Amino acid sequence: MQKFKNLLIAFVFTSSMPFYAQNAVIDANLKSDLQTEIQYLSGTDKDNLVDWDFWISEGRKSGKWTTIGVPSCWEQQGFGAYNYGQDKEDNRAQEYGLYKYTFNAPKNWKNKNINIVFEGVMTDAEVKINGKLAGEIHQGAFYEFKYAITDLLKYGKQNILEVKVHKVSANESINHAERNADFWIFGGIYRPVYLEILPKENIERVAIDAKANGIINADIFTTSKKVHAIAATLSNVNGQVIENLKIDKSFKEEGRWHITTKANNVKTWNPEFPNLYVLHIKILDKQNKILHKISETIGFRTVEVLEGDGIYVNGKRIKFKGVNRHSFHPKSGRTTSKSWSLEQALQIKDMNMNAVRMAHYPPDKHFLQVCDSLGLFVINEICTWHNPTLDTKVARKIVKETVVRDVNHPSIVLWANGNEQGWNTEVDDDYAKWDIQKREVIHPWSIYKKTNTIHYSHYHSLINDAYSKDKILFPTEFLHGLYDGGHGAGLDDYWNIMWNLPLSAGGFLWDFADEGIERTDKNNEIDLDGNHAPDGIVGPYGEKEGSYFTIKEVWSPIYIEDRFIKEDFNGIFRIENRYHYTNLDKCTMTAKWIKFNGPKDNKNATILNTTKVDLPNLAPITKGQFTVDKPKNWKEADALYLTAVNQYGKEIFTWSYPVSIPKKANSSQIDVAEKGSISTKTENEFIKVEANGISYLFSEKTGLLQEVKKGNTTIPLKDGPIILNQKDKIKSITVNSSEEKVEILVVFEEGKWSPGWSTLKEYRSDIIKWTVNANGLLDVKVEFKGYRNLKGFRGITFSFPETQVAGMKWLGDGPYRVWRNRMKGTEFNVWENDYNNTITGHSGFVYPEFKGFFSNLYWAKIKGNNNNGFTVYCNSPQVYLRMLTPENAPDTRKGRLDPKFPKGDISFVMNIPAIGTKFQKPESTGPHGNPEHYFGNDDNPITIDLTFDFN
Questions:
Q1: Is the separation of the CB atoms in 218 and 232 below 8 Å?
Q2: Res. 25 pLDDT band, cuts 50 70 90
Q3: Looking at the 3D structure of the chain, how many domains does it have?
Q4: CATH number (domain holding residue 577)
Q5: What are the C-alpha distances in Å from 827 to residues 348, 417, 578?
Q6: What's the pLDDT tens digit per position in 895-945?
Q7: Alpha-carbon separation of residue 637 from 286, 547, 598, 813 (angstroms)
Q8: Using the 8-state DSSP alphabet, how is residue 477 labeled?
Q9: Which residues does the UniProt record annotate as the domain Glycoside hydrolase family 2 immunoglobulin-like beta-sandwich (predicted)?
Q10: Considering the domain boundaries, does residue 4 fall inside one?
């Protein structure tokens, strides 16, 4: 454990990589009698702890004095017991802990004011200095508090800090808000503790309102009687002075000075251009001598919530592309770090999001600093949970602590007075008392004043034609992401309405990361408390699930209309600039024409041509088009890639478009030149064909493949192709042999007309046609009826034991599986996945998941154990590969999260199911969640044409 003492921490945002880099700079040279000095008594984050003496009342390691690293959740240091918020009261841990720490107070502090600051303690904290109470017991786990301890210190001597921490609060309304909630419960001093050393004449705090037009209003809180004037200077984040500000107006009242000034030629703050400045404020005496100076990072922006219209920032109506986020790390619980905040915020930005809601409490200060720097709108929230609400006395204290700490962050655009009926309406007006910017207050999951923040609304409720249709609609939670459901599944449908509905202000997905904790009492295994905590787009350590990339495409600020490249492709793509502040010419785009190699090649692809795409100079929220130049050999390509990059060099998204149809792309990969002898015989109700060292066995009664052997090795693909949802009887099976091939034709009886199928009276016969070629290749062509199919699959299936599958390499969309309502986010390419048995959000956390449906199959090399694999070429377009059947997680909420799979193990299908969410069946998430499918009729039967290579 490393001890940190006498460190002045200044957060500096570097300019070498604008807005995408933040560094904490430790510089002892900044120490000055005119500035605030910070001395840490604890460590600074989860990776830098300081040992304090510690004793705990019950649970693990209880009843004896030892040491603990601070800051930390004591459960993660091996103490006490674990609880999830929804545990029954009888099973709830009740421990308390005693902390001791000795520190020195230098003699030169005698003429200073000293505060001790706790950034967060769970849950009730009694603080003593040298045996005397520093102040009243603090209640509430997620809020910064401080005590003035100037008169309690012994200067030039050692001082003893003692903290008694109760995990369970003496205030029952806090217990309901914080310990009954839907998240993990921890105990301890989990955020840093430090001393503030200030001049006697000092600024206690400042509250700043920096408008988009450059006007600054600031409240400077000081009790000093010597203050005669205020001076203000504006610099950039690198410390270069931009302007000595002229104070246009100032007045003082009890405990506060107010000033108004105006900065010239400043750039506004928004998520696309998060321009930051530093406002330096000095209090001066009558001789203009500086008494104290303080610096605050600010951004110039104006937030307006216009009733019946929308939420505006700097005059632009905003669509929130947001997510909910807990302050949480799997190793350290609620104790995090700035590097972790930065890592998670970068992932949020990478998904093309522009907003984050704090769930369900104020975050670490460094996360808000990162949001300021990278550019993310923030809804900041106090912690409440359903009814009953916080009692008014403690709620008033908590609102003040939240707003006073966070008031100056430009990223914060709204306050949330609790969550889901936990709103104490008596304190709604308290936010304005402490917020100089007078930001609006919302009630998440409520129709309140100007807004409707309904949670988990069904797709159809977004029509917004109820009595609240004049409210600004933005669900602060939607598409709950339990396991693999929600998030990306349904988002395309939801966003089509949200984007085009004038009163929609977007919404916030639930939630960012699986809140899985490493249990120190269970050999550090990840615990998600059943289905309570696996709700993330990413896993506990940031492992990306499939929805991550779906969101990245759906929420791309460059929207490209769906496009198919055919023989008469003209190169034109229709486009919409969905940025709020950025002209499209700030971005760049590259086109690549790709030729893919086959399954036997180590090199997956060759780039035939690369060109720059001239994007139009589209203003935000406008439409246009661009043209991709077609090289002379464009028809030789298998795919076109379009990669868009933003003004900071970050990839927005890469769109991929197949150029060659499967039959053409596969023609050069299937080896048909090799010849060999072929023979066939029928006996014991089997048709046996041998060709080029491979033996095939077919059922004489069903025509299904029963066995494949290569020499003495059995390749266990069999029992297919079963035509899914086909009940017709076999009419005939015929075998035709020649020197080059053996054909087996299975013809089914004609199916009769059924209402809803077609206007035709009869259907043509379904057929299965096997062709064993003399070189050993096996072709199968299956034709079957097309009709409206409400629930079942249309396609064919085979058996192949899961225990024999080692992995696969394929050309198609990937590398993630898809659902009918989560098709976007994949890329057409050659992919390779090893077998895994990940249950999304529950176990394994190895992504991409190996099992599931994969779209747009061209070919797949199935790697078997003991060299018993094979390669299959799919010569029919728009076919899904079904690879095995994923296991279900426990309690999938009445089957909403376990879509049905066809029988068998490996299938080739024309339609796939959608997936639901924790609270919704798939059909309530939009059109793509509906089980109804439409297929061809007698004039256009469904054809699946495959070639198997067992060599």
A1: yes
A2: very low
A3: 5
A4: 2.60.40.10
A5: 20, 42, 22
A6: 999 999 999 999 999 999 999 999 999 999 999 999 988 876 656 789 999
A7: 78, 29, 14, 16
A8: B
A9: 209-301
A10: no
